[in-house]
Amino acid sequence: MIPYGRQDISEEDIAEVDQVLRSDFLTQGPTVPRFERAVADFVGAKNGIASTSATAALHLACLALEVGPGDWLWTSANTFVASANCGLYCGAQVDFIDIDPRTYNMCVKSLAEKLETAEKTGQLPKVVVPVHFAGQPCDMVTIHALSKRYGFKIIEDASHAIGASLGQEKIGACTYSDLTVFSFHPVKIITSGEGGMVLTNDDELTNKIRIFRTHGITNDVLDFDPRLPDEIWNYQQQALGFNYRMTDIQAALGISQLGRVDEFVAKRHGLAERYDDALSALPLSIPWQAPDTHSAYHLYPIVLQKGCSQKSQRELYDFMRARHILVNLHYIPVYRHPYFERIGFEKNYCPNAEAYFKSALSIPMFASLKGEQQDRVISVLTEALANTQ
Ligand SMILES: *Cc1c(COP(=O)(O)O)cnc(C)c1O
After folding, report:
1. How far is the CA of 358 from the centre of ligand 1 (A)?
2. 231-246 in b/e burial notation, b at 16+ Cβ within 10 A?
3. Angle at CA 75, nearest 5°, toward 73 and 80?
4. Test site for ligand 1: of 59, 129, 171, 183, most ligand atoms within 8 A of the Cβ
């Protein structure tokens, strides 16, 4: 069985986790701040705030930006539901931008047009969440310029993109955004089991996120409300927060994995090159790389070309799966899920995202994918598409 993605755990990773298990702190110890510092230094951001997941990190980012009822959050139609749910958790309304048919990322032309209309109707977004789909960086320069023109904040959903870069900047440096979120779920580039992190260069947002991460409680006396008795009690709840803390066990795995992030991304690039060569003659599109970007290659989505007498997307999915190659579909346009249909979204709302959804499949792509496994994926895919032409 070959999955579409999986973790790569070394003996060193295990030893690091083992060490924390034998130490005084399983949580709220020194390892989480070490992981935060290590990720922030790696990407070139000022601060990192670790959390239980990227979903929690997105929620924390929205809380820090004071997203609430009456606000709009816009994101890409082609993403995991968490990129939109963070706005809904805060009582905001969400809307979706169609994708660029080449990168499958948020289309900046559609974004610009939608902003122009929204300005007229007084419904400009408070926050836009670009998603670096498959690890391919979005056009952040344009999105950042639009944020200045229309006054919205930017949270980059970089769940696919630790180790990617745009020009000279690593994704996560927040050069073109207020906040960036990473995921450390096992299918992503590096893992901490479950886990996520917010990166930012803004100290005020950092403090807010730290407080929301731990119940809305502060234990900094300087932040205390003097009207409450504080002589002996050393904490105050000042906002309604959550317990979104990462454990030191997870952080130890994260630190160890971070040491190999460049190696993981390089391996993914090697696999992508082999796929590019082997699949270029088949009736499908391989992932296009925008100039001046270095993808993290979280996914390798192929898109079946129209008008070829090849297997349909579903037939290909079944054919590959029957041969134990667990291809997957990333993503169902978020608004097509029943929950979003119930809140009023209609089929075909974003035509490019729908066309992509009807013809794409993610084939296996992960650092520990072996050459012979990849050869098998290539030969089964070639067989599938050749048979029916
Ligand atoms: C995986 C993923 C998330 C959620 O990550 P978790 O750490 O599992 O909460 C959010 N957005 C995107 C684009 C993702 O791929």
Report:
1. 22
2. eeeeebeeeebbebbb
3. 120
4. 183
Instruction: Measure CA 81 to chain center.
Output: 11
According to the model, what pLDDT value does residue 309 have?
46
- Sheet containing 169-170, strands listed edge to edge, beginning at the edge strand earlier in sequence: 169-170, 165-166, 293-294
Question: For the chain, what percent of residues have pLDDT higher than 90?
Answer: 91
* Cα 103 to Cα 232: distance, rounded to the nearest angstrom: 57
Q: What is the DSSP string of 191-254?
A: --SS-EEEEES-HHHHHHHHHHHBTTEE--GGG--TTS--SS---EE-S---B-PPBHHHHHHH
User: Rounded to an integer, what is the distance from CA 340 to the centroid of its chain?
Assistant: 20
For residue 75, pLDDT beyond 90: yes
Of 58, 80, 157, best ligand 1 pocket probe by most atoms within 8 Å of the beta carbon: 80
Count of other CB atoms within 10 angstroms of residue 221 = 10
The closest-lying atom of ligand 1 relative to the alpha carbon of residue 195 is 7
What distance in angstroms lies between residue 307's CA and the mean position of ligand 1's atoms? Answer: 34
Helix (H, G, I), strand (E, B) or coil at 103: coil
Q: What is the DSSP letter of 153?
A: E
What's the pTM value of the predicted model, to 2 decimals?
0.97
Asked if residue 254 has its Cβ within 6 Å of ligand 1, the reply is no
